[in-house]
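Design request, tokens follow.
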């Protein structure tokens, strides 16, 4: 199948692109290279340096490539930045997605696959009386930041396009994704940040007491979920996480062991928008997509550190 991957030069999108090609699909990538890198894209894959806010340019590219499926990964994905610049975030994350939906409608695409977020869509996860963990797809969405609100808006639009224009979709609500190629300089991926700092023997910082928990999933598992989403007949929303909460202190300890890091982390005040605990029940993806997480945390961390070691050496 001919698949358009937006954000395919980025961390997750580049792994998805690799796995889609391995499954026999033909792909083209749209990415404005804001955080993505040309070096993440193999030379024989068409990479169009374009912005998803630019509707005319997207229209040109659809006319040229005529994709059958859209796998939409391009986004601005920094929670703190989303609070500082809500307008740009809405332009890229909501209007950009709408441009793609309009073109998917025009070209009668077979499916729209969308990268949503379990962490930011469910938020803190309180019902009126209690906190409910792990989150299922039926848990009430309660975004705590503009990024989560952007993603939830997209989910509503995608469902509307499905109802009104018969566009099948799969929305994947990722938990916290980590693995090779994640940017150690940003603030999204604590595993990438700790790994980069530890290998360089720099100090590390933990926000709050470090007892906050996340559901860390290895990027190959996310890429496989996207391949299954493209192939399957189902339409709907699916959590994709391990179902295992891990606290930040534990991540620090495991990575310190893998990197022979001896320094103690310092603790910084936790930002007000930081969610205390989140992890996902992905049994629906198991039943309907045939997906489950395969790479356990220790193995995923080992692969990530190995990649970072090689990569840092190359950069020196
Ligand atoms: N990393 C995570 O833990 C996580 C968790 C949940 C959801 N997600 C979602 O997964 C997707 C991929 O995230 P990632 O972690 O790989 O981040 P990333 O920044 O590596 O990838 C995003 C890609 O989108 C591109 N992009 C940004 N703005 C663009 C624009 N206006 N036009 C065209 N391209 C643009 C960037 O250059 C980059 O290549 C995003 O939609 C993100 O919201 C990520």
């Amino acid at each position: 199948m001919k698949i358009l991957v937006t954000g395919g030069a980025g961390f997750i999108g580049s792994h998805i692109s690799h796995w889609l090609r391995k499954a026999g699909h033909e792909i083209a990538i749209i990415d404005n290279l804001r955080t993505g890198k040309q070096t993440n894209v193999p030379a024989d894959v068409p990479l169009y340096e374009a912005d998803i806010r630019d509707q005319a340019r997207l229209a040109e590219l659809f006319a040229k490539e005529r994709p059958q499926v859209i796998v939409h990964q391009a986004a601005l994905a920094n929670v703190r930045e989303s609070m500082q610049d809500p307008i740009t975030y809405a332009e890229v994350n909501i209007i950009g997605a709408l441009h793609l939906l309009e073109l998917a409608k025009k070209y009668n695409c077979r499916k729209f696959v969308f990268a949503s977020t379990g962490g930011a869509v469910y938020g803190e996860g309180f019902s009126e009386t209690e906190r409910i963990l792990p989150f299922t797809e039926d848990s009430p969405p309660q975004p705590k930041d503009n990024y989560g609100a952007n993603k939830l808006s997209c989910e509503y639009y995608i469902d509307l396009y499905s109802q009104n224009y018969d566009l099948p979709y799969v929305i994947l609500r990722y938990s916290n994704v980590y693995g090779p190629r994640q940017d150690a300089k940003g603030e999204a991926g604590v595993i990438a940040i700790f790994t980069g700092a530890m290998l360089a023997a720099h100090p590390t910082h933990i926000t709050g007491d470090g007892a906050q928990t996340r559901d860390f999933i290895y990027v190959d598992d996310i890429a496989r979920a996207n391949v299954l989403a493209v192939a399957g007949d189902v339409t709907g929303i699916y959590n994709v996480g391990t179902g295992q909460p891990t606290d930040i202190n534990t991540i620090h300890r495991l990575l310190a062991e893998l990197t022979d890091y001896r320094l103690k982390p310092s603790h910084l005040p936790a930002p007000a928008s930081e969610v205390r605990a989140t992890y996902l029940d992905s049994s629906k993806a198991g039943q309907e997509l045939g997906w489950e997480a395969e790479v356990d945390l220790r193995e995923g961390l080992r692969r990530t550190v190995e990649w970072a070691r090689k990569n840092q050496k190359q950069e020196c």
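Comment from the thread starter after seeing the answer: thanks! Residues 86-106 form the longest helix (21 residues).
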